[in-house]
Amino acid sequence: MVNLTLNLQEIQVPEGTTILHAARQLGVKIPTLCNLENREAIGACRVCLVEVEGARTLMAACSTPVNEGMVVRTHSARARAARRQVVELLLSEHDGNCQTCDRGDDCELRALAAEMGIERVPFEGIKAHAKIDDSTPALIRDNAKCIKCRRCVTVCGEVQGVGALFPQGRGFQTVVGPAFTRDLDSVACVQCGQCAAICPVGAIVEKNSIAEVWQALENPAKHVIVQTAPAIRAALGECFGYPPGTRVTGKMVAALRRLGFDGVFDTNFTADLTIMEEGTELLTRLKKALVDKESVALPMFTSCSPGWINFAEFYYPQFLPNLSTCKSPQK
Description:
Blueprint: E1 2-6, E2 9-13, H1 19-25, E3 49-52, E4 59-60, E5 70-73, H2 77-93, H3 108-115, E6 139-141, H4 151-159, E7 166-168, E8 175-177, H5 194-198, E9 204-206, H6 210-217, E10 225-228, H7 232-239, H8 249-259, E11 263-266, H9 267-290, H10 306-315
Parallel strand pairs: 1-5, 10-11
Antiparallel strand pairs: 1-2, 3-4, 3-5, 6-9, 7-8
């Protein structure tokens, strides 16, 4: 165990603990934009700077391990001024068109600026400009909004095991994206969406089809149906303040019908059919292997997720025979 003093409070933490996690044990919030739990810190954003007694410079709390006898001040005037300047510099080159950004009030950079009381940006930096990449069916990339925190790089490579995104270039010319600045549809992206979920700003977002849906609903010549995923019946309730896990199936169907959908179909039904078919296929394969002594691909994996199929095709083609021949429930 390591003993240190953090904001005048003595604390004991396991060896190897970072200043950031030591502070969290005391309930002290240190802002950060690049840190991901259970991943090695890279200290890319520099928003978590703190003052360590005896250190020549401010230290990044996310990547600095504690030492015996260390004295840390997380919110000294020097640390707060430096963090504020870092955020101001990020804002100076950021495409701050917040009114039309998909992240809106969920933007972590915007929230951090408000928390620090930043009302105007004192630096007239060159604004980043980039071609919007909407080449894939599910995601839109806008590098003009990217703050180079590299969260997407970490989650894509270390968590998902895909590695479709990389930092490239130096200084102001640094960009994050597929190798050789190609579009996302030209690399082995499986459209899992984790990069969009983890992005603190609006640099990577899911494609929005609301306008097309309204257009279809207003077309009297079209019979418009909607198919909902099983998880939606509970997740939707949380958006309206219901306790987690509350089923709102009836309310959801009624709302969709009032919006103008001619039919509401539940993927749960086809998911059950898929499970039955996959179960039958597994029993057939087991009979061939154990009774008939035939050579069959085992174990058998589900095929119900298109993203999982893409992942297998790109990275584990040797296991394609092990996939069930059943179609996804949404098909």
